[in-house]
Specification:
Distance between the termini of chain B: 31 Å
CATH topology of chain A: ABC transporter involved in vitamin B12 uptake, BtuC
Oligomer: heterotrimer
Strand content of chain A: under 5%
Low-confidence stretches of chain A: none
Low-confidence stretches of chain B: none
Number of strands of chain B: 10
Number of strands of chain A: 2
Number of domains of chain A: 1
Chains: A mainly alpha, B alpha/beta, C mainly alpha
Helix content of chain B: 25-40%
Order of helices and strands of chain A: HHHHEEHHHHHHH
Mean pLDDT of chain B: 88
Strand order of the largest sheet of chain A: 1-2
CATH class of chain A: Mainly Alpha
Mean pLDDT of chain A: 87
CATH architecture of chain A: Orthogonal Bundle
Radius of gyration of chain B: 17 Å
Structural class of chain B: alpha/beta
Shape of chain A: globular
Amino acid sequence: MEQLWTQLALQSINGFVLGMNLALIASGLALIFGVMDVVNFAHGEFYMLGAYLTWLIMQFIPSFALNLVVAPIIVSALGIVILYALLKSVLGKKAIYTLLATYGIGMALRELVLIFFGGTSKSIQPPIETKITILTMEYSLYRFFILICSLLVIVGLWLFLKKSKYGLWIRATAQDHEMAAAIGISRPLIYAIVFGVGSGMASIAGILMAPLTTVYHTMGIDILLLAFIIVVVGGMGSLKGALIASLLIGEVQAVGSIFIKPTYAFILCQILLMVILLVRPQGILEKR
Amino acid sequence: MLKVKNIHTYYGKSHILDDVSFEVRKGTLVSLIGRNGVGKSTAVKSIIGLTPPSEGSITFKDKEITGLPAYHIAKMGLAYVPEDRRIFPELTVFENLMTGMSVKKYTPAERETNIEEVLTYFPSLGPRLNQNGDTLSGGEQQMLAFARALVVDPVLLLLDEPMEGLMPVLVSSLEEVLKSLKAKAKTSILMVEQNTEVVLSVSDNIYIMEKGKIKYEGRSDDLRQNNSVLAKYLGV
Amino acid sequence: MKKRLPILVKVLIASALVSFFLFAPKLLSTFYVYFLMEIMIWGLLAMSLNLILGYLNLVSFGHAAIFGSGAYAAAFTMTLLGGGFWQALGVGIVAAALVAWLIGFFSTRVGGIAYIMVTLIFCFSVFLLAMSATEITGGENGIYSSVKGLEVIRGLSLDRKPLYYVVFILTALSFFLLRRIVNSPFGRVLIAIRENEERVRFMGYRVKNFKLFASILSGAFAGLAGVLYFFMNSFVSPEAVGLPLSTEVVVWCLVGGTGTMLGPIVGTALMLVIIQIISTYTKFYLLFVGIILVLVVAFMPEGVVGFMKNKFSKE
């Protein structure tokens, strides 16, 4: 029985860590959808690219901290390039088209990574190897590091949206993009910022998780599904909803895996989704 | 100030604006009137760039603005108060006012002054500065939409049915605001409006539209004396 | 004056195609016969999806789950129930229709993007189930059950050639059936819902029921494709219910054009041929598929058939 309580405690913490990390990805997805009406099927690839870039750079400069700062910037820039080079022509069209375009881009990115890096997974040493003891069990301090970093980024996003000029523009565009334009807010600029921030956040999530999951070319789509569930459950486009749903799903996954196989834990999330859809089809919180 | 020359605007296959021309001279208030559906709103939207014309030319201060993206046009000094208010519902009143100002280069002091000035026109907004836009009543939202446009010292103000759905009390106060703006002569105004009384009272020039075309142009004094014209086009 | 492709030309093309398909087993090697069967089966799957994708704008990313359920059900019928050709066919179609009902019940409650996500998530769950319920589904390894010698009708057993004709006949039948459905009053209601759901609802139609029924119908055809898939391979594995397959089906429909029932099958054939060609040069064919996808969406969103239709009816 002791064992169970300890496991529950540890998994609850894990759930929190996983949830916050998921929140990084899901917030980006929700933000891009809320402001641009784009379902970004390539979002997982930004997560993956963050990890691969970090591995690559670390072959030359073995500093994890450096990568945590530099790699997201590169991925954001890449995201913006992709947006304006490839997605511009589909932006106004029906959702299915942007969806398929981003899916195609994601597919191409995965293959490119496969071509350049090969099929074997790469490992990255966690920057913090110390373990601490919680309730007689060992727990990796690095996971707390992930938690804190994710939390900082989320808080940073919140501050950015609420307090900064660009945040105001983004919120205005999300609520009424025509009127925002008529006020003088440049839509191309806002789209670039939103897409850049979203992809950057996804890449940070990927970098943080990489030491735990290893780096492989399908790591993006593996996590994208969970992110989609979160965005639907949270209410399409709602950031607060995405955060709540992330923590919820993180906990369900983590605590659930004590009792059932991890794959079944996903199905649990699926059932959760179904229940919520029955009760509240618009998700926990409505758009924005 | 603003010259609209022979523009044609389509919505899909519908020919909404058919060879429309009018102008707004500096410091004047020009009204565009006509029955519902004649294209008045579209004319304003064409100017601000939301429904660009497919033919013709619109110049502002002798610069061609046809085909420019809306945000570019707005930055040149045009401010738009749309027909359905369209204040940002989840931004506070203060934030709504800031959306326009944050695009231009104002110092914090100037921003404060602008807000104070605008609040003298619309005092009911003052105590609501930190409330979300969607908690305001319909009339207050209209005030906010107007204030949001005024707060950026616009060179040209575009108003689309500003009096619609307002209580007579609010209509009068808006009328006063318009008169006061005219008196200060800093802003030129183009107004689309159904309320003929107000139109006659504040306008310098009036254009009457019917089925996408301009049918009549005249000074408001002339129209006041010549009731038959209004009767013909508006059934008034 | 509309310039349409003269009826005579259409008939000629159709006859040529039909003859080609009819005589293929005699003219081509096993590999190509197999390839043609694949085109037909995947084409059938694509058509089934298009019933809700093209005519109701319901972008289902879960059709593989339905298709695969039909395949698995056929496999179970043979291995667990000892059933034959017709039993497997029947059970497979019904099972798929039931899965379509389950998914449709939840997915039609939401619209637009949420619909896509819900069907996608459902599909992945089915995939996980197929992977983990090893005792029943064989897990990763799937189920193998040779269909050689399976009796279709007295005297005719399911070897490669008869199988080819069975597939051909059923696919052709399905094509004509689906065309009749979309051109029927029922089909017209679907199109009306796609164009203006609110108005149809105001007219008194229970839109949700129409959507659900169309989903079930679509599922039945997808299940048929699944059964045929199982017959073709004597094998089914979680790949048949996976998301990659679901997405591929959507892509095929879009490449061909979702406006008609012809589009999906043209799109499928086109994509399969292109992939076959590219695969002979590089194993990274997915890169090109991705690029093609982006190009089609950007420049030819109405699909090949849609594009051709526009060209030939310019006023």
